[in-house]
Design goal:
Layout lengths: L14 E3 L12 E5 L6 E5 L4 H18 L18 E6 L3 H14 L3 E5 L22 E8 L3 E3 L13 H4 L8 E5 L3 H12 L3 E5 L11 H13 L3 E3 L4 E6 L5 E5 L3 E5 L1 E4 L3 E3 L32 E3 L10 H16 L13 E3 L5 E3 L4 H8 L2 E3 L1 E4 L13 E4 L5 H8 L4 H5 L20 E3 L3 H14 L1
Parallel strand pairs: 4-5, 4-6, 6-16, 8-9, 8-14, 9-10
Antiparallel strand pairs: 1-6, 2-3, 2-5, 7-15, 11-12, 12-13, 17-18, 19-22, 20-21
The structure holds flavin-adenine dinucleotide (FAD).
Flavin-adenine dinucleotide binds next to helix 2, strand 5 and helix 6.
Length: 461
């Protein structure tokens, strides 16, 4: 790939960045650069060896420490006389990094560059991105954005080397015969559903009594029940203690309660960690919390004024649309002269389990905590399309669950009365939202009142 012509860098440097690398045995980094509005994105070849990349990043960011003190922290228009190669240099071409660079360049005419890891399907310290080449130069930028995301993390138990994570699970050459999945979050359940669908024998081990911590109790029960009906085996209140491999290659998982054997695969979906190792951020004064997440203010600015961070690396709300929102906000803050906070209210989430579930707004516990007395409306029904199929599926519908239309309604602050006065489309699943007349139960802070209203609700059924 031919090198794109870089704008000539002026002398003073706020942030020296990334690309000085001695060895180029293996092409590693891809740098997309876009110069000025209308010129499009230019791939910029760089080169580094896998071994040198960590050091290279460390060195580059170290340089930025001494130079950023005088960085431009205001959302003021950039000087006509440019002193940097780039207005924004982003580390990480994932959801957040690409969005910030695109918005900065397309909306505000900023000169934006993105640096990415070499391609690999399973992420490591030196591999895992979209791939590319490195040219060994040193670049300067007025602002650096760290958007390196996170990586699966596994507990350090005996035999952990036999265990796969979600990256490796997506890279399996064939279907597992029998798989243990450790974890009760959405990644664990989604993979359990995929492998169950492929007719693997799927065992899910969870530390708690229920899956999907943070979701409503009824949703948690409902998903576990439905997945069990489809053949997934849940082992509850179990923590993994060791994995052993027998001579025939099969794996056993030992927990605090039992040992289950005969697994062709053991997968851990036990959380993710911010990808901040080996970046040298601590050397330049970027604060991180005890989990390695970059600490940022409400504008996603780190403790170093000209270094910003968005997405999973900040461990706020680890979802793609949230990373996109944070990225758009920083582009506006830096280049739009419009300091913009990301808005975390009514962020929806979905789990692509069988059946899929969605959630927006407060859980029942949070609603009770916030408002005291609340009425709960639940609709259990079987969609017409499934009445003849014999599948166990049915949809359970809470006022605070489901689909984009509901998310918009919640965000806009619509009330139950607005739902009640809406004419539904028949025959659709969605009409259930506007036909829930009687509360299934009423939760009251005063427990005597709650007991009474539960009886009332039951008698209204
Ligand atoms: C299995 C799984 C399923 C998910 N499903 C959903 C879902 O259904 N819906 C949803 O909203 N979210 C989902 N998420 C979460 C979502 O993927 C993340 O929240 C989102 O990608 C975060 O964006 P990001 O920009 O912070 O990081 P990422 O998109 O992960 O991008 C980070 C990038 O930085 C690169 N990088 C890392 N280190 C370096 C370095 N040193 N130098 C250069 N580049 C580097 C990486 O290669 C990567 O390309 C899922 C996550 C997983 C793991």
């Amino acid at each position: 790939m031919a090198a794109a012509t870089l704008p000539s860098a002026s002398a003073k440097v706020a942030v020296r960045n990334l690309a000085r690398v001695a060895s180029s045995r293996q092409p590693l980094l891809l740098l997309h650069a876009s110069y000025r509005r209308g010129r499009g994105l230019h791939p910029l070849p760089l080169a580094a060896s896998a071994a040198s990349q960590g050091a290279h990043l460390r060195r580059a960011l170290s340089v930025s420490a001494s130079a950023t003190a005088g960085g431009n922290n205001d959302a003021a228009p950039r000087a006509a006389e440019r002193e940097y190669d780039y207005d924004l240099f982003t580390i990480g071409a994932g959801s957040g990094g690409m969005r910030a660079s695109r918005v900065a360049s397309a909306l505000y005419g900023a000169r934006a560059a993105v640096c990415e890891m070499p391609f690999a399907t399973v992420a490591s310290d030196a591999l895992g991105g979209v791939g590319g080449t490195v040219d060994g130069k040193l670049y300067t930028a007025e602002n650096i954005l760290v958007a390196v995301g996170g990586r699966p993390s596994k507990p350090n138990i005996p035999g952990i080397e036999h265990v796969i994570d979600s990256d490796a699970a997506l890279d399996l050459p064939s279907r597992p015969e029998k798989i243990a999945i450790v974890g009760g979050g959405y990644i664990a359940l989604e993979f359990a559903g995929v492998f169950n669908g492929l007719k693997s024998d799927v065992h899910v081990f969870i530390r708690q009594k229920k899956v999907l911590r943070g979701f409503d109790e009824e949703v948690r029960d409902f998903v576990a029940e439905q997945m069990s009906l489809r053949g997934v085996k849940f082992h509850i209140e179990q923590s993994p203690e060791a994995v052993t491999k027998s001579d025939d290659g099969l794996l056993s998982l030992k927990t605090n309660k039992e040992t289950v054997s005969g697994f062709s695969h053991v997968m851990f979906a036990t959380g993710r960690k911010p990808n901040t190792k080996n970046l040298g951020l601590e050397n330049v004064g970027v604060k991180m919390d005890e989990h390695g997440a970059i600490v940022v203010d409400e504008y996603s600015r780190t403790s170093v004024d000209s270094i910003w961070a968005v997405g999973d690396v900040t461990n706020r709300l680890n979802l793609t649309p949230v990373a996109l929102m944070e990225a758009g906000a920083i582009a506006r803050t830096i280049f739009g002269n419009e300091p913009t906070r990301a808005d975390y209210s009514a962020v929806p989430s979905a789990v692509f389990s069988q059946p899929p579930i969605g959630h927006v707004g407060l859980t029942e516990d949070e609603a009770t905590e916030t408002y005291g007395d609340i009425d709960i409306y639940i609709s259990n029904f079987k969609p017409l399309s499934l009445t003849l199929s014999g599948l166990p599926d049915f949809n359970s519908l809470w006022m605070y669950i489901n689909i984009h239309g509901i998310v918009i309604a919640v965000k806009a602050g619509l009330t139950k009365q607005n739902f009640d006065s809406t004419i539904g489309v028949h025959p659709t699943t969605a009409e259930e939202f506007v036909t829930m007349r009687n509360p299934t139960r009423k939760v009251r802070r005063d427990t005597t009142a709650e007991a009474k209203t539960k009886d009332e609700a039951a008698s209204q059924k």
